[in-house]
Amino acid sequence: EADIYQTPRYLVIGTGKKITLECSQTMGHDKMYWYQQDPGMELHLIHYSYGVNSTEKGDLSSESTVSRIRTEHFPLTLESARPSHTSQYLCASSGLADYEQYFGPGTRLTVT
Amino acid sequence: KQEVTQIPAALSVPEGENLVLNCSFTDSAIYNLQWFRQDPGKGLTSLLLIQSSQREQTSGRLNASLDKSSGRSTLYIAASQPGDSATYLCAVGTGGTSYGKLTFGQGTILTVHP
After folding, report:
1. Closest partner residue to A99 among B44, B99, B105, by Cβ?
2. Residue of A42, A59, A102 to mutate when probing chain B, most B C-beta within 10 A
3. Most CB within 10 Å of its CB: which of A77, B6, B68, B102?
4. Which chain B residues contact residue A90 at CB under 8 A?
5. Which residue from B23, B13, B31 is spatially nearest to B88, judged by alpha carbons?
6. If you measure CA to CA, which chain A residue comes closest to B49?
7. Tens digit of each residue's pLDDT, chain A (112 residues)
């Protein structure tokens, strides 16, 4: 059983608000990832990190930013939310042994 | 750029049937391949991980095979049950400087009816 947590699970906010989606894992994994998934669509990588103070943009351009100041924590921030940011955001992590990725339950974000 | 395709997009079968889900990828230089299950509105559950040097992996009623040279993987589900109903996702991991990054297919929506 993977121990990776995301909060909040659901969030409805108004346009222009700043939000932070939390992701934490207790497995000591170095690698962490954020994916975006629109309803009925495939997952796209938007950010990843190979360790503390390491962050990279993924394959899908995103206006969000991330930080990694602790191994277990990889928050995602939107400075000014817009309706186009409405989506499900999934966090994942993997270890160095086999790169198997474990996913959190996701945050479903709705921007009105 | 790696592209992953899953066929069929949707599948409906009666309980008890054996079934095969297909996944193909365009770049054979992969590090590993993972099959996931996703229930509506939920995160992903890892089902099977196949390293690039392996040909297949088994877990209970699930068996996944990998043919790297032809860019194909299959997920075999034996004796399907209504609880198997979910979306099944195939994802390939790339190596080099992209170690650990996954590229996903669009998924196969499986419905098993009693």
Report:
1. B99
2. A42
3. B102
4. 43-44
5. B23
6. A100
7. 568 999 999 999 999 999 999 999 999 999 999 999 998 888 999 999 999 999 999 888 888 999 999 999 999 999 999 999 999 999 999 987 777 899 999 999 999 9
Q: For residue B69, how many other CB atoms are within 10 A of its CB?
A: 7
CA A7 to chain centre: 10
Residue B10 binned pLDDT confidence (cut-offs 50, 70, 90)? very high
A42 and B105 in contact by Cβ < 8 A?
yes
Which residues does chain B have within 8 Å of residue A99's beta carbon, measured at their own beta carbons?
A: 31-32, 93, 99-100
Query: Which SS3 state, helix, strand or coil, does residue A22 take?
Result: strand
Contact criterion met (CB below 8 Å) for B75 and B90: yes
CA gap B110, B8 in Å, rounded: 9
State the count of interchain CB pairs (< 8 A) between A and B: 61
Question: pLDDT tens digit string along B20-40?
Answer: 999 999 999 898 999 999 998
Nearest Cα of chain B lies from the Cα of A15 at a distance, in angstroms, of: 23
